[in-house]
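Board work, copied verbatim: Phosphoribosylaminoimidazole-succinocarboxamide synthase
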Amino acid sequence: MARRRQLFEGKAKILFEGPEPGTLVQYFKDDASAFNAQKKGTITGKGVLNNRISEYLMMRLAEIGVPTHFIRRLNMREQLIREVEIIPLEIVVRNVAAGSLATRLGIQEGTRLPRSIVEYYYKNSALNNPMVCEEHITCFGWAATQDLDDIVALALRVNDFLTGLFLGVGITLVDFKIEFGRLFENDDMRIVLADEISPDNCRLWDTKTGEKMDKDRFRRDLGKVEEGYQEVARRLGILPEAGIRDMKGPEGLQ
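↓ predict structure ↓
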């Protein structure tokens, strides 16, 4: 088996060179972190579940015309993606008050918002990913006004679709964080959905009971973290028949 060169390692994923120019291999880890890596741990099988969940959601979004970096899943923990220039912004879409919004504005968690809110955060862990506005983004050249228009339109489209999809399996999409990148093809550039969509970056509550099925179970020491992720996959109909089993990690270039 040919060894692959590791390009980047983040909190939850590792990126390797892809088999063809313009592609990368994205490997999902079981590592978990919260509060800007102040809390760290391991969620057994998380990488396998997030790989499957993100694959499923990316494919469903592609079916309605949302452009993504996803190409195909390679195995239990890896997927082939297009190489993009990541825009240094985290886009958060909120439907229900929770997390930092509830704390920051003194809104009771669980309050449904009058309309969906889109927030921007500068993707910089050393600065604790500060919240920014359009003026900051355009002033410092992180994205142009047209880029932001495309990003917001895509984010709201993703929200509308996923809200309905999750509602159909008894899950409330409270909020989620996504990232976008610039995909260059010949002389053309387009904005595409990148990173992942999984319980790592979505708040997912049982519609009837309010039970949390996402990384808040890890953040808040609620227990049964693995079970929460598995329940999301089960309701989406993609929990591996053999259950969660560990897979050997990819080899890096020595």
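The radius of gyration is 18 Å.
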